[in-house]
Design brief:
The protein has 164 residues and is α+β, with helices and mostly antiparallel strands. The chain is built from two helices and seven strands, in the order H-E-E-H-E-E-E-E-E. It has a five-stranded mixed sheet, with helices on one face. Strands 3-4 form a two-stranded antiparallel ribbon. A hairpin with a 2-residue loop joins strand 5 and strand 6. About 32% of the residues have low confidence.
Length: 164
């Protein structure tokens, strides 16, 4: 009988501890949902100057530091493209490939464990001696575009380069 009582006590303690741990989690989730709802009017990726938010008293395009709340500003150029814009708004966690794919017509091949390899941008497919290389802040990237997470102020460049 003492063993059964001990088991019930242990199960009760575990149950109480588990339910106490869930309450703050649910509260945080509710707070996050409210925060997400209040910022959901913000676009994910749009060319700067085309922003529209009804919550900004100074006008839809005014942001004191040039950056929307919750977003990052990056520049991106694609060699030879007429679709380049001065800058783009991106959300934290987006990759260089995400930005390219959302702003240009891209064909890429996904290699398991390595990431995406860009084959064409805006219909331009390199010949057998060239490939699309991407640069971050003036330096050739040492990781793939689908692995590089954008940072505020990054300058992303896509260039046709000779295979060495």
């Amino acid at each position: 009988m003492k063993k059964i009582t001990k088991i019930f006590i242990i199960v009760g303690i575990v149950f109480l501890a588990a339910s106490c741990g869930k309450a703050p989690e649910q509260q945080t989730t509710n707070q996050q949902t409210q925060t997400q709802q209040s910022t959901s009017s913000q676009p994910v990726l749009t060319p700067q100057g085309q922003t529209q938010t009804k919550d900004n008293a100074n006008g839809p395009d005014y942001f004191p530091n040039g950056q929307k709340p919750g977003g990052i500003t990056v520049t991106q150029t694609v060699e030879g493209s007429s679709s380049n814009k001065p800058s783009y708004q991106a959300t934290e966690g987006q990759t260089a490939f995400d930005l390219l794919d959302s702003t240009h017509t891209v064909q890429a091949k996904d290699y398991s464990g390595i990431g995406k390899f860009v084959e064409t941008i805006d219909g331009v497919k390199p010949d057998s001696k060239h490939f699309w290389a991407f640069y971050v802040n003036g330096k050739s990237s040492n990781v793939g575009a689908s692995s590089y997470v954008l940072k505020n102020g990054d300058k992303i460049e896509w260039k046709l380069e000779l295979i060495k």
